[in-house]
Write a structure and sequence with these properties.
Blueprint lengths: L2 H17 L2 H6 L1 E9 L10 E4 H13 L6 E10 L2 E11 L5 E13 L2 E9 L1 H8 L3 H4 L1
Length: about 140
């Protein structure tokens, strides 16, 4: 597939997150896709290497905590060969009353027109404070 196809698929992934379309997100991934969220699992429970099934469960759990969804925006993108590097932002109101406003860098790899590997870099401290930290620590 072409670089332009890969970039369009990357944009579509972000659009489907914004729509809350989990099935649509999963359709963009190969069956053997992996998704890496770097970090120490002791400090950031969602860190780790996920296969397609596990990342789908994580996304479902996340979206269930975002009653109005997670608005994702591409702010920059560079592509070469079968890779797309993308900068992005997200915004969502959590059921715990906090606001998840994240900045990301993703490196996506493609095979046969679908995403086969993702490495997601984000502010893990913000994510931990908003999603996992006890309320008394945050206030």
């Amino acid at each position: 597939m072409s670089i332009e196809h890969n970039k369009a698929t990357t944009r579509e992934l972000f659009a489907r997150f914004t729509e809350g379309n989990l099935d649509g997100i999963m359709d963009l991934l190969t069956e053997d896709a992996t998704w890496l969220v770097p970090g120490n699992r002791d400090d950031f429970p969602t860190a780790g290497l996920y296969n397609k099934e596990r990342i789908g469960r994580l996304f479902n759990a996340m979206l269930n905590q975002l009653p109005d969804g997670l608005k994702m925006t591409v702010t920059g993108m560079v592509a070469e060969g079968n890779k797309v590097a993308v900068e992005g932002e997200s915004h969502g109101d959590l059921t715990n009353g906090r606001i998840y406003k994240q900045k990301y860098h993703f490196l996506m790899e493609f095979r046969d027109g679908k995403i086969c590997a993702v490495r997601e870099y984000l502010d893990t401290q913000h994510a931990h404070l908003v999603w996992f930290a006890a309320a008394e620590v945050r206030e």
